[in-house]
Amino acid sequence: MAFGSGAMTNSINDLSQAQVFLVIGSNTTEAHPIIGIQIKKAVSENGAKLIVIDPRKIKLVDFAHIWLAQKPGTDVAIINGLLYVILSEGLVDKKFIRERTEGFEELKKVLSKYTPEAVEKISGVSAEDLRKAARLFGQAKSASIIYSMGITQHTTGVDNVLALANLAMATGNIGREGVGINPLRGQNNVQGACDVGCLPDVLPGYQKVLEEANRKKFEQAWNCRLPEEPGLTVVEMTNAALDGKIVAMYIMGENPMLSDPDLTHVKEALESLDFLVVQDIFLTETAELADVVLPGVSFAEKDGTFTSTERRVQRVRKVIEPIGGARPDWQIILEVSRALGYSMSYAHPSEIMTEIASLSPIYGGITYERLENGGLQWPCPTPDHPGTPILHREKFSRGLGKFHPVEYKPPAEEPDKNYPLILTTGRILFQYHTGTMTRRSEGINEITPTRIVEVNPNDAKKYRIEDGEEILVISRRGKVKARANVTTSIRPGTIFMPFHFAESAANILTNSALDPIAKIPELKVCAVRVEIANKKQ
User: Fold this and answer.
1) CA distance 485 to 449
2) How do residues 394-449 score in pLDDT, each as one tens digit?
3) Fewest CB atoms less than 10 Å from the CB: which of 18, 109, 177, 537?
């Protein structure tokens, strides 16, 4: 299970109709380049305005009209500050608030303390720049909010998302073309995996495990008894393994030995298991620890569907037969299930899709036959439904949209005299996630710098670091060696590392502290110090 959240309210094609973009916690051009192209095209050809909120001068900043370089972990303060200005200058959508929402008066009470000057002290963003961004967003007839894991991977990740929802609703930017709240998924088919139940608290179609009627429906269909309580998230499973509460683990298509926080802790947990199975297309760092490795197949060797970040379900068609002893994932799972005593009998992935449609209302009208003519966006509840390009057109799923007053809370770990810098992590264009596939390409490796840590010139001068010099980055959990890239693209007091590289794994350093609600770890903020690697003792 990857660390992401939510679903895009709008479609990718919708972006061309936005007058203003607010991009926060998303290095869009490098992590989601197709969507990045759409944003750049809207700005350069359609005259759209762009606000980027990011501690780094990412490539998208070159196209931005306003760049707010905030201290990592201060997003709630920033968003509340934008709302404060929008409210105080009369830029809210009163009609939308009155007719389609509730709880706005409670939100107003919280916003009163988030003046631009107060936010500047918290975030480091100038009060005047905050006002400019708020006016630009608030005056737009159509404004689109785009975010990714730079928003969710915090101990306040849920609060961050709720604050963005407040911003969208207060300005009426929901339920139309060119607007919306658009989280970009971190990996291919993460959306689809979550849709069909790969989350610990829901069954397929986001039907809550805690509700008895949902369990009974699936129990009847599957002829088995289901647990009555939600399961554990990734970091919780790691902790449970160390505590001896989990003794076996089955990991499929994920590489936690590079992607999870506090990798020393993760390795200890995986090695403590009595039995570890890893199912993947390559021998990953995680698979190297496994008792059994089950070889899956690539996209080109299987039939099925992927669901994209815009909720679009699309067919995947087999081009070649599986190589060697590899098999499609669904066949492997079927045979493992049979060996464990539960008989599954599907002859083809289309039969699995038929079952999904019968049990999950949002997929109710989606069949292989319909997908032959192109993708469909859920919700698509009936066979004659055209799909839903835009969510919440007439009303929200709960009826009225609810404002949630959220307060700024600092990250779980802040700089101090022993660890005076903030480390944030992310991706670069030429490598993908943990490099399971891309790092096996010689061409990509030749053009991609490895073991890089971005350091602001002020910090480099303070710690006597030269550009290109090998340095140690040290947190409370471990240390890694990397090459310093001294650049003004990162704000002072903050350093950045990509997490793709096993030889300098940034997630050795990161914090496994969790958001109390979503249980997503704080991968984007931790306290570190830097030292010259060959420093004489």
Assistant:
1) 10
2) 888 888 999 999 999 999 999 999 999 999 988 776 666 666 666 667 777 777 76
3) 537
Residue 381 has pLDDT above 80, yes or no: yes
532: its two tokens: 């010259």
In angstroms, the CA 537 to CA 530 distance is 15
Radius of gyration (C-alpha) of the chain in whole angstroms: 24
CATH topology of domain 421-532: Barwin-like endoglucanases (2.40.40)
Point out the least confidently predicted range of 165-169, 493-497, 501-505, 517-521. 501-505
DSSP state of 483: E
Please check the confidence at residue 1 and state whether its pLDDT lies above 60. Answer: no
Instruction: Give the integer Cα–Cα distance in Å for 121 and 200.
Output: 39
Q: Which fold has domain 190-377?
A: Rossmann fold (3.40.50)
pLDDT at residue 477 greater than cutoff 90: yes
Tell me if the domain spanning 12-183 has CATH number 3.30.565.10. Answer: no
Q: Is 251 in contact with 242 (CB distance < 8 Å)?
A: no
Q: Where are the domains of the chain?
A: 12-183, 190-377, 421-532
Element (H, E) at 528: strand 526-532
Strands 494-498 and 421-426 turn out to be parallel
pLDDT at residue 60 greater than cutoff 90: yes
* Cβ–Cβ < 8 Å for 68, 85: no
The two tokens of residue 312 are: 């679009």
Contacts of 283 (CB under 8 A, 6+ apart): 293
Q: Do domains 12-183 and 421-532 have the same CATH topology?
A: no
The answer to whether residues 165 and 404 touch, using CB atoms and an 8 Å cutoff, is yes
DSSP letters, 255-305, are -HHHHSSSHHHHHHHHHH-SEEEEEESS--TTGGG-SEEEE---GGG--EE
Query: Global pTM?
Result: 0.90
Q: Mean per-residue pLDDT for 57-74?
A: 95
Q: Where are the beta strands (DSSP E) in 139-236?
A: 143-147, 181-183, 202-203, 207-208
- Paired sense of beta strands 421-426 and 526-532, if any: antiparallel
Segment 509-515 mean pLDDT:
87
> How far is the C-alpha of 79 from the C-alpha of 119, rounded, in Å?
9
| Three-state DSSP state, 385 | coil
Q: Which amino acid is at 28?
A: T
Q: Which of 20-29, 105-114, 253-262 has the lowest mean pLDDT?
A: 253-262
Helix ranges restricted to H, 361-423: 368-371
Phi-psi region of 478 (alpha: psi -120 to 50; beta: other; left: phi over 0): left
